[in-house]
Design a protein that fits this description.
- It is built from 5 helices and 6 strands, in the order H-E-H-H-E-E-E-E-H-E-H.
- With about 140 residues, the protein is an alpha+beta fold.
- It folds into 2 domains: about 70 residues, Winged helix-like DNA-binding domain superfamily/Winged helix DNA-binding domain (Arc Repressor Mutant, subunit A); about 55 residues, Ferric-uptake regulator, C-terminal dimerisarion domain (Dna Ligase, domain 1, 2-Layer Sandwich).
- A 3-stranded antiparallel beta sheet has the order 1-3-2.
- A hairpin with a 5-residue loop joins strand 4 and strand 5.
- Helix 1 crosses helix 3.
- The termini are far apart.
């Protein structure tokens, strides 16, 4: 019987720590596996998938599909309610740029309050050109 308890296992904690260590970007399951293996944490892909599903369900991480990136990507969701993070995917170089701007928080609140639409910041992605590509 599932009582809804959150269980902490060494593998789950290692996976979450790996995602937190890469909090400024999205990370794929293969990048997680490579990172864990480099640290000596031999965790199988099945275990990683199972724990990622649990972490998504617990709203510790976000799961998204990003154009041009093979496979599902994951990123850490900050606990602070006032943290509204968005990302820009550069259409020229493909890099993901973390956008943490107070004006975006106002936009998020406006759309939520005035249009009764909830935006999931864990899955929000802007597309355009990054600063480096704009300078070229």
């Amino acid at each position: 019987m599932n009582t809804g308890k959150k269980y902490k296992t060494k593998q789950k904690e290692s996976i979450l720590q790996c995602i937190q260590d890469n909090a400024d970007t999205y990370i794929t399951i293969h990048q997680i596996a490579d990172s864990l293996n480099k640290k000596g944490d031999m965790v199988g892909l099945t275990t990683i998938y199972r724990n990622l599903d649990k972490l998504v369900g617990e709203k510790e991480i976000a799961k998204v599909t990003i154009d041009g990136i093979s496979g599902t990507c994951y990123r850490y969701l900050p606990k602070k309610q006032d943290s509204v993070l968005f990302y820009l995917k550069c259409e020229q170089c493909g890099n993901l740029v973390n956008i943490q701007c107070p004006e975006l928080k106002h936009l998020y609140e406006h759309i939520s309050n005035d249009h009764n639409i909830f935006i999931n910041p864990g899955k929000t992605m802007f597309y355009g050109r990054c600063d480096n590509c704009m300078k070229k």
